[in-house]
Design a protein that fits this description.
Number of helices: 0
Radius of gyration: 41 Å
Shape: rod-shaped
Bound molecules: calcium ion
Oligomer: single chain
Strand order of the largest sheet: 7-14-13-10
Structural class: mainly beta
CATH topology of the largest domain: Immunoglobulin-like
Length: 289
């Protein structure tokens, strides 16, 4: 056994000699011993050295001394002296939202350097799973979700898992991070841009920069929205940044003529489209100066 105290006898070798007198007295040379008992001098660790191959000599006290070599193999038996180890004290697991209930979403695993049943590990969640959202298989470490995981409701769960090689245990903190899926359509309501433009000899109130953004909203954080005009903007009266949704007015609108234009805009997330109507209405007139 690897955990035996120092000086424990491991094995006794014995030899016989058919000569008489001193020629028949046998002693053993191995660490200077003469009782033929091999003892431990240091703590044994099977996880370090599982087998020792030793050679001892049985020597008689005759003249000349004759000796015989003896090969001894010492196999260290395992003791459960190591707890299971997680790769890290704290780690991340990524799980896609909307994963079907009961499907294995991840594996929790630890290693145990011992042997046989001393290396058998049992897993359990010991903190952070109230109410029960996840289930951890005690033997396989397979993690399953017990509820419909919705990124938009909650995007991270923190649990503490324990690996047991009875009676030894170790724990790790697991950050279960949901991975966003595109399961929401962009939201965009009809909206209007109303602006008043007064042109005088000296100045103009015409807005030349960005006047705003298309008020679209998408609950999926990872969605990159794309904006474009479907209809109504053939004269390019409104300038649109396709990726940011920012709007500018064309210089062509910088005059006193009243105008009302109806346009249709689409907002696209990678898989889903939303369409909306935009009214551009200008109340023009000669400025009072
Ligand atoms: Ca163990
Ligand atoms: Ca061991
Ligand atoms: Ca969702
Ligand atoms: Ca989502």
């Amino acid at each position: 056994m690897e955990d035996v105290p120092l000086y424990t006898s491991v094995v006794q070798v014995s030899a016989t000699d058919r000569d008489s007198g001193l020629n028949g007295r046998v002693f053993y040379t191995f660490l200077g011993g003469d009782d033929g008992i091999i003892r431990t001098l240091r703590r044994l660790d099977r996880e370090n050295v599982p087998v020792y191959t030793l050679q001892a000599y049985a020597v008689d006290k005759g003249h000349p001394a004759l000796r015989t070599a003896i090969n001894i193999q010492v196999t260290i038996l395992d003791v459960n002296d190591n707890p299971p180890v997680f790769e890290k004290d704290e780690f991340d697991i990524f799980v896609e939202e909307n994963s079907p209930i009961g499907v294995v979403v991840a594996h929790v695993s630890a290693t145990d350097p011992d042997e046989g049943s001393n290396a058998q590990i049992m897993y359990q969640i010991v903190e952070g799973n109230i109410p029960e959202v996840f289930q951890l298989d005690i033997f396989s470490g397979e993690l399953t979700a017990l509820i419909d995981l919705d990124y938009e409701i909650r995007n991270e769960y923190i649990i503490v898992v324990q690996a047991t090689s009875a009676p030894l245990v170790s724990r790790a903190t697991v950050h279960i991070k949901l991975v966003d899926k595109n399961d929401n359509i962009p939201v965009l309501k009809n909206f209007q841009i109303i602006f008043n433009n007064y042109v005088t000899d000296k100045s103009s109130s015409f807005p030349t920069g960005v006047i705003g953004r298309i008020p679209a909203y998408d609950p999926d954080v990872s969605d990159q929205l794309l904006y474009k005009f479907d209809t109504g903007n053939e004269l390019n009266l409104v300038l649109l940044n396709h990726t940011t949704g920012e709007i500018q007015l064309s210089q062509a609108l910088d005059n006193n003529r009243p105008l009302e234009a109806s346009m249709r805009i689409s907002v696209t997330a990678p898989l889903q489209d939303t369409h909306t109507r935009l009214m551009v209405e200008r109340e023009g007139g000669v400025g009072e100066g």
